[in-house]
Amino acid sequence: DPIEQSKRLAAYQAVDNHVQPQHRVIGIGSGSTVPYVVERIVQQGPAVNKGRVFIPTGFQSKQLIVEAGLGLGDVDQYPTIDVTLDGADEVDHLLNCVKGGGACHLREKVLAEAASTFILVADHRKNVQYLGTNFTQGVPIEVVPFAYAKVLQNLHHILGSPNATLRMAIKKAGPVVSDNGNFIIDAPFGREHMEDPYVIMAQIKMLTGVVEVGLFCKMAQAAYFGNADGSVTIRW
Ligand code: DER
């Protein structure tokens, strides 16, 4: 599958460039690209992985670490992380990104901030000029269930996202519930809001009941995109 191959290419090069033997506390993101990050780290061998601690960004990420036989740690034990590697739903030309397609962006943002180096890995579909180009379902917003209707109302009538919706589960009745027990709202915004995503991110964050917003503004030091032709585009 060319998309899977491009994910693997990006992940392998990112690990080769940014996960060095002296890096001992490593944050692992969520989604379908980070398994290739873990795969490449395992290939660095048991000697270099012995004593390393891997911090997950949710249940899927934790399963990935445990199943790979790597050391598991918590961010409260290791509040300072050497490097965090994570996927993204879209990355613009200034390395702003949309995250939360997998409903994991709260813990992902904690680990992104806690890391000295934060690296994005993705296939070429995520490499865009402006956010909202390919990933059209909207900005993921984690909200406490008690407040979701009010947050939706504010998004519809005040912040300019009339099509914002509560994310419903597919193989479970009712809404998607995050690892933190919260709901997710997907809020599409027009291009005018995505010129500088920081502004809309701050406005959304201020809505009462919002826990975290899936806009990571200029947090990453580099982004690796696997291309269909087997090349890797690196942006920083
Ligand atoms: O939810 C997230 O932020 C994940 O990182 C996710 O969006 C990345 O998805 P993918 O690696 O499966 O494309």
From TrEMBL:
GO MF, one example: ribose-5-phosphate isomerase activity
**Annotated pathway, please?**
Carbohydrate degradation; pentose phosphate pathway; D-ribose 5-phosphate from D-ribulose 5-phosphate (non-oxidative stage): step 1/1
Pfam families assigned to the protein according to its UniProt record, in alphabetical order: Rib_5-P_isom_A
GO terms, biological process: D-ribose metabolic process; pentose-phosphate shunt, non-oxidative branch
What cellular component GO annotations does this protein have?
cytoplasm
The chemistry this enzyme catalyses reads: aldehydo-D-ribose 5-phosphate = D-ribulose 5-phosphate
- Signal peptide interval: none
Kindly give the SUPFAM superfamilies that the UniProt entry links to this protein: D-ribose-5-phosphate isomerase (RpiA), lid domain (SSF75445), NagB/RpiA/CoA transferase-like (SSF100950)
User: What Enzyme Commission number does this protein have?
Assistant: 5.3.1.6
Entry keyword set: Isomerase
Please give the InterPro entries that the UniProt record associates with this protein.
Answer: NagB/RpiA_transferase-like, Ribose5P_isomerase_type_A
Superkingdom: Eukaryota
Protein family: Belongs to the ribose 5-phosphate isomerase family.
Q: What is this protein called?
A: Ribose-5-phosphate isomerase
